Structure formats: C-alpha cells, structure tokens
Amino acid sequence: MRYCINCCIHLLPNDLHRQCFRCRGPDHNNQKCPVCRGENKIPLYTDSKQMKWLAVLEVRTDHCESWNGFFCLRKGKLCSLMFGLIIMTLVMVSYILTGAKHGLLLIPSPFHYGAFASNPSLMDNESLSDMKDYYQPSKMNISYVKDYPSIKLIIDTITSKIEFITRQRPDLEELRKQEPHMFSVIPNKFLPNSKNPCWYEEYRGNTTTDPYATNSYALYSKRFRIIFDYLRKVFWNHLYHYKDKHYRLRCLPHFYIIGQPKCGTTDLYDRLRLHPDVRFSAIKEPHWWTRKRFGIIRLRDGFHDRYPVEDYLDLFDLAAHQIQGVLQGDAGKERGQRNNIIIGEASASTMWDNNAWIFFYDNSTEGEPPFLIQDFIHAFQPNAKLIVMLRDPVERLYSDYLYFASANKSAEDFHEKVAESLQLFEGCVLDFSLRACVYNNTLNNAMPVRLQVGLYVVYLLDWLTVFNKDQILVLRLEDHASNMRYTMHMVFQFLDLGPLSEKQEALITKSPASNTRRPEDRSLGPMLPTTKAILRDFYRPFNTKLAQVLFDDAFLWKRT
What residue intervals traverse the membrane (predicted)? Predict the structure, then answer.
C-alpha cells in the first residue's frame, strides 16, 4: 500500500498519481524528480522494527503538515459523517413540523397573514408563492385547537366585524376603458326576432381559412377538439350570404347558471339541456368571465395568454347554427314568427370568483375590487336571467373538501383545516372590510378550505346592485332533491319556456341525479359534531341576512 507524501492520497498499484499538482507539474520529469525516484523518503518503524512485511508509508522529511491532509479521511468515515448530518436534518424537520402542528414552536407561524396584496403590478409570470410575500406576518401564532370554546372566540370576533355595505356601482365609461376590445366586438343591440341575444358579424375569411385555428379552448383542451373539428366541417354551410359578403351569426347566453359549486348546478344543467328549446355552450363550464379572459387556467399554475371574447363566442356556434336555421326558415315562410330557442351557460364560478381583479384593475377602494363580473355582464346584457342553486353552507363546505382534497382525507383533517381557515379569515376582517376579504385572491388561496364560497349573501347583494331581483332565481338543493318536479317547473317558468309533453317532462324530472358523492368519499362518514357546530356558528349571521333578503326562512337551514 503506497501513499503520496505530498497530499496523502491513497495510491493503487501502478498508479502514476497524475492528479496531484505537487507531484506532476507541466515540466515534470520522472527521472529527475526526487519524489518519483524515491529520495527523501524514510521507512516507518514501530518498536525499532522496520515494517517491511507491510507497505511503507511515505512521509515528508520536513514534517510539514498540509491542508491537503483533510483528504486523508477514508471514504467510510466521510460517508458516516454525511449520514449523521442527514439524520440530524431529518430530526430537526420532524421537530419543526410537529411543533407547528401542535402550537409548540417558539417562533411565530408564517400562516397567519395580515395586510393584503395591494400591488397591481404583479405580472403573469409570478406564482402564488410570490403573491403570499405581499402578506405581512402577524404576531399571532396559529394553533390547531380542537376545543369548541377557543374557536368560538374567533367566530365571535368575525361576527362583530360583519357589515353589509352596499358597493358603489361603476359607470359604463369606466367599464369601456377597462375592456375596450370586448365592447368593440359585442354590439349594444341584438336581433329583434330572436328571444336569445344574437347578431350578425361579417366574416372576412375564405373557404380555406380555419375559423377556429387560434381558439384557446381548442388549443389547450384535447377534450373539445372533436367538437371544433365538427364545427370546421359545417362552418361554411352556416354563413349568411348577402351582397357578396359573408356573415356569421354570433350569440351570447340568454341565461346563466352562476353558482354555487357543490350545490347541484351540474344536475340542473343536465336536466335543462333536455328541454327542446334550451341549448348550452359546447363546454359546460367555460369559466370565461371569471378566469379564462384573464388567462387563468389554474391559478396555481400562473397566467397564460388571455382568451379573447371571440373564443368565448365560438362556444355558442352549435346553438347559433340552430337558431339561424329557425330565422332563415321563418324569413321565407312566416316573417312574424320569433325564434324561441335560448342558450344557457353554467359556470359555477360566475357568482363568486373575482380573484383575478387585483392583477388587472387598479386597487382604488382599499382592498375592494372596483369592478366585478356582473358589471360587465350587465353592460352587454341588461336583460340577462340568472339562476343560483344553493345548499346548507356547512354541508357544502364538507362536500367541497371531499371533492377537491387529494389525499389524507378524514373528518379530523377537515376539522383542522376549518380551524386554520377561520383564523386566517379572522386576521383579515380585523383590518379590512368583509368584501375585501371575500374577494381577496391571496387569502382565499391560503385558506385550506373555501369558507368564502358559502357566504352566499355577500355575493348576492353585490349582484343585486346591478340586476333587478326578478332577474335572479335562487333555489335550494334540498328542495330540488326532495321535489325535483316542482323546482324544474320554477325554472321553466322563470325562463318563459314552452309547455312539455308528459314524456318530455318525465325524461327531465325522473332521470338519475348527476355528480353525486363518490363511494370512497361516502365511506369517510360525516364531519365531526364539533366541526358542524363551529361552522353553524360561523355561517349563522350570513344565513340570517340571506333569509331576510329573499324573504324565506328556509335559507336559515335550521332543519338540516
């Protein structure tokens, strides 16, 4: 066994040791180098006996120590050292995580946020982690307390800060400045002989032009490419030709199912689309008004290119083709007959999701959005009809958790997430208005469960500042489940739809319910009784106000 006297690196047999910069330089000569020829070396003696039966350890005669001696550690010792460091790191991480969960850490938890992100200069490439930096940590530490009295104090604080203040409605000119392209595409008047809002738009392409080549829905979603492939094939046949020009019929929805998530909107959609006079967009939930027009596919993934209004209008081309068939048929036969086909759109985010406003509109109202979705819808469609399906907000939240949580779902985990979300919401209302908290993107994404979606009355009051009360139909899922025929008749009457035959009505009302709870979620059982009591207390003042606005005590949800 040999060692280099210059760097103490273990040498293998026949190793020329070329890596040592002390042994081999640019002008090195093996014959002239005293190190390579074996000079200035002494054998190692132990107890006055030369250790010739082993190897000779080559040492430097000047006995100088070099920093390179650090590398003399054997590989085994170095691996042991690294393994020890890894074990220590894992122990520390385990301590930190356990301490944060049980409130044992001596440092404040970073989950309790105070001030809001009021900087509108956040750009598309910034992630949620960047957004959270705009929150200022509070001195309070979040603890996952499970006892009812402790959380009740938090709820009492939130209740004391609740104020239902009417928002200031923006004028039309302000809306035009924010979305000039949208106002240049959608006219302010529609065809008089159509119940659904439609208009003719000049088409400047030719037979070889693909009208859907740049449609973002077709580009980003494989599921809808089949639909657009069909539309391409029939597109030219549905153009209206007049004076050497080509026109396509454009349409907006006549009614919107605007909310709420996990409240039966899918079931209502599936039944309504069976009515012979009702058509829907090619995609059930386009989420254009709330997300896609801002370039949001999934907020956690950041921003993409914004979907223009033309992409949204393309989703109604299938229905527009059928309406055009009625209009052209009537023109040659009975000019006085009116088209009665109506189009619906069923994005369950429309009522409540205004999370993107802070990135596109100036924050001039102390954390409250200056413009909401309903402002723009009303600007184009002041006569639009809106349908809202609600359910007990306590049960809605648990259903929402079971549907969207990906792993480790349990009643206990739900309880802890509710406790954390309540403390985050409390930290917000201590410094900001209720509306500012409800519409704040960063807070809503920080909360483990979507408490804010169940604050129905906050959203409804903001919609009522724009639309008349008789334009909004509010239903309860509990009533829909117990007497489906009655609720569907209410919807038909609200939309002024024609009568149905017994066979058609039976098909609509007796088909199985859609989008019910998955079997694996049912096996988890109900939420903890303590969790239910906590959420009952939290939602009670909001339900009370909702019942007052709608003049219906059923929205107190006392019996559920």
Answer: 78-97
Residue of 399, 372, 184, 225 lying closest to 290 (CA atoms): 372
Residue spans per domain, the chain: 172-554
Question: Which of 410, 428, 444 shows the shortest CA–CA distance to 531?
Answer: 410
- The pair of structure tokens assigned to 27 is 């002008």
Superfamily covering domain 172-554: P-loop containing nucleotide triphosphate hydrolases (3.40.50.300)
Question: Which residues fall within 8 angstroms of residue 111, CB to CB, at 6 or more apart?
Answer: 142, 420, 424, 446
Going from the C-alpha of 289 to that of each of 38, 168, 357, 378, 400, the distances in angstroms are 84, 20, 11, 12, 22
Q: Which residues of 42-51 are buried (b: 16+ CB within 10 A; e: fewer)?
A: eeeeeeeeee
pLDDT at 31 (0 to 100):
58
Q: Which residues are 245's β-sheet partners? A: 242
Cβ atoms 60, 35 nearer than 8 A? no
Q: What is the pLDDT of residues 231-255, one digit of tens each?
A: 999 999 999 888 889 999 999 999 9
Joined together, the tokens standing for residue 121 give 């200069």
Is residue 347 pLDDT above 50, yes or no?
A: yes
How many other C-beta atoms can be found within 10 angstroms of the C-beta atom of residue 481? 13
Residues 6+ positions from 173 with CB-CB distance below 8 Å: none
- Which residues are within 8 A (CB) of 554 and not within 5 positions of it... i.e. 6 or more apart? 476, 478, 479, 547
pTM of the entire predicted model = 0.74
Which amino acid does the sequence have at 463?
W
For 274-295, what is each residue's pLDDT tens digit? 999 999 999 889 999 999 999 8
Cα 248 to Cα 237: distance, rounded to the nearest angstrom = 10
With a CB cutoff of 8 Å and minimum separation 6, the contacts of 333 are none
Q: Please give the structure tokens belonging to residue 301.
A: 């993934």
Of the given ranges (73-82, 284-293, 543-552), which has the lowest mean pLDDT? 73-82
What's the CA gap between 198 and 190, in Å, rounded?
5
